[in-house]
Amino acid sequence: MRIAITCYPTHGGSGVVATELGKHLAEMGHEIAFISYSLPLRLGELPDGVSFYDVQVVEYPLLKSFPYTLALASKMAEVARMKKLQILHVHYAIPFAAAAILARQIAPELNLKVVTTLHGTDVTIVGSNPSLKPVTEMCINQSDAVTAVSHWLKTETYRHFDLTREIDVVYNFIDPVRHDRPIPRCIGPRECSEQVTLMHISNFRPVKRVTDVIEVFARVARVMNARLIMIGDGPDQSKAMHLAQELGVAERVKFVGVVDQVAPFLKAADLLLLPSETESFGLVALEAMASGVPVIASNVGGLPEVVKHGETGYLAPVGDVDKMAEYAVQLLSDCERHKQFSHAARQHAVRNFDYHDIIPQYEAIYKRVLG
Question: CATH second-level architecture of 196-353?
């Protein structure tokens, strides 16, 4: 099949999943064209079967802001005609689904099919905003197929919009080989001098509650020799850095910035902290578990579909930093328990979220819309 993929080319979960999907589809013999305003973070050198098309941004005095949706639709139609595309698969409803539906109208001779994957905030925050709700609802209803990354998100989508179509749940996925790691090193008693490593990976937006990460770590650091690695960046980074100074743990916290691949960093982690306000799936939690890293996260959104409480990590109420810290100390101070959780996390990720099992679900949807 000949498929175009459009996503945000950043380190957020929707862009990561879309990029990895395209690469795996190309490995399976499909022709993939990425269309975006810049090269997706994890794409790197273009593998065989993958091409990239840049959407040009042009300034014009009469325009208050550049109409990216219109430029994207034009580029989609242009590439579709050039590459004889069959499917436009967009990851995030607004503005990508709107652009794809417009491109379908621009090039009616191609009979293009639009597949929209919902990732979370495009429904719960952006799409449900009164100024965008009508167009989001129209885009979902007029797509040829719609997928959501969790059952929770599917339910939320039906709650927010008046929909006339079915939504398929297709989970995010991992590559077991990329995230493979040796048997986890033993974590000794907490009075042991061996240092443990906690990790957080996100785009540091308010919804990620990165100050809660610092609060949890400070409580752990009071009783254990621990360090915290913060991967990513975003609007709340300064708040996190300032709080680390206030709590006296700044020397134990390292801010790494945005990285292309998180798997090499996860190999050094003993525990992942993800205290988000909400998560539609929690891809970083899945990637951590695939690397044998237990997760402590908020009990919200799609996270309970990923993290098994008391088996692959722990879930706590949003904002309950005391409970999260308590779980962290329990797990990190008990060598045998940590080994059990690490093994269970890896097994759960591989058994339920292997890309070899997930990608065929997308293929089946493509075949269905193509008739």
Answer: 3-Layer(aba) Sandwich (3.40)
